[in-house]
Amino acid sequence: MIVVTDVHKHFGGFRAVDGATLEIKEGSITGLIGPNGAGKTTLFNVIAGVLPPTSGKVTMAGDDITGLPPHTLFHKRLLRTFQIAHEFGSMSVRENLMMVPGGQSGEGLMAAWFQRARIADEERALLKKADEVLDFLTIDHLKDEKAGNLSGGQKKLLELGRTMMVDAKIVFLDEVGAGVNRTLLNTIGDAILRLNRERGYTFCMIEHDMDFIGRLCDPVIVMAEGKVLAQGTIDEIKNNDAVIEAYLGTGLKNEVPA
Length: 258
Description:
39% of the residues lie in helices and 22% in strands.
């Protein structure tokens, strides 16, 4: 679905991404791991249009999407979440979801004056969709809660729910497990698996929790120093000497049996 070919992203003399080439297959849950500073989030930002590449190419289903802005990729149903959730804190959880779909009639001044019945119909449909999403994510009891009052894990679920409001094709998850307790992390994992298996979502996720990666992801891609270092199953990655060396004992090495 997504093919990244020899992508570079430089900041002055610093090569954050230095010739990365990889493929994210349709219907997969692909893990992207590596030590801090490996270029993972920068690569996400290039794919998702947040940053233009210095050079290289990104395609989606064969179409060149290199450098397209996030709002254009949104309409192609390519979405990403962030390590720090971006919710509208003063609005309810349900309202946060209802705001996601673009092109709503109520956004236009003339429609707001002369097409009130159409707007009301759209809002009823959005309300129904939002409630279905909240039920799917098992957070329907929070629908009227202000989003700013949610815990970190609940905010990550809300971000996942926002991708469901537009039936995303591919979602890039940036450290979805960061700061999330184990119970909520399991809930998030269950939702990702269901979206993948029942609704055909493709995911690519950056994550440091190797148990979480091992439960969800196949394949796993390892980056180091802006390049792709290795790719394989979680067991192959854990036993790859080059990967162990790249991590320098910061976590992955300790996961490998002696």
